[in-house]
Amino acid sequence: MFRFCAKSENPDCKLVIGGPHVNALDEQILKHYPFVDAVVRMEGEEAMFEIVKNEPFKKILGITWRSNGKIVRNPDRPMIKEINNLHFDYSLIFSEIKQWKDFEVPRELQKVNHLPIIASRGCPFQCTFCAAHEQWARVYRSLSPDEVIKRMDYLVSQYDIGYFRFYDALFMASDKKILEFCDLLKKSKLNVSFRIDLRVGTSKEVLKRLREVGCDVV
């Protein structure tokens, strides 16, 4: 289906893919799917911008591609240091995801509008069962608590969101930041529930504060 919709309509278009799985399977993807022109490894914002600008593939860091039938793996691209400057435009996809629900939460929460959100990239830990540290080159970065609240406030006002599902590998990774987030969320008076991922061993103080400001699922 993907091949038919893209290459059959425009054989000269560049078909580029990315995502968490391609970091380990980039060369295999190009071997098995000849219609894929390039694979963007790890973060894609800067690499895709250069691809759209029609920069030569050989100059673009962080991609795997073909040159004269041979697979070429360009050097990794450095991780973006400041992610507060990165924004996701929900307006581009909201018509498709406005009915989305996190069905793993209590039934009562199903009655409000849901939205997925991310407040960080990577994880500072290196658990052997998890690929997050490989996907993000062992670099952990998070939005500031103030920036997270600003984004939540905007999304609530724009789309009437009542529940957020944070898809971070580890939510904020700092008790200090989490407590600051809780304080700011309480002051904001946002009437929302949310779900996060935390490590075993998170302090009772942090869990209590999260519960008080709307964290219904961990």
Provide structural commentary.
The chain is an alpha/beta fold. The protein folds into two domains: 2-73, no CATH class; 83-217, Transcription Regulator spoIIAA (2-Layer Sandwich), CATH 3.30.750. The protein has helices at residues 2-6, 22-32, 45-52, 94-97, 132-135, 145-159, 175-188, 204-212; strands spanning 16-17, 38-40, 63-67, 70-73, 113-117, 120-121, 141-142, 161-166, 193-195, 215-217. The strands form three sheets. The protein has a four-stranded mixed sheet, covered by helices on one side. It has a four-stranded parallel sheet with strand order 5-8-9-10. The chain has a two-stranded antiparallel ribbon with strand order 6-7. α6 (145-159) packs parallel to α7 and α7 (175-188) runs parallel beside α8. The longest helix is centred in the last third of the chain and has 15 residues, at 145-159. The radius of gyration is 20 Å and the shape is globular. The mean pLDDT is 92.
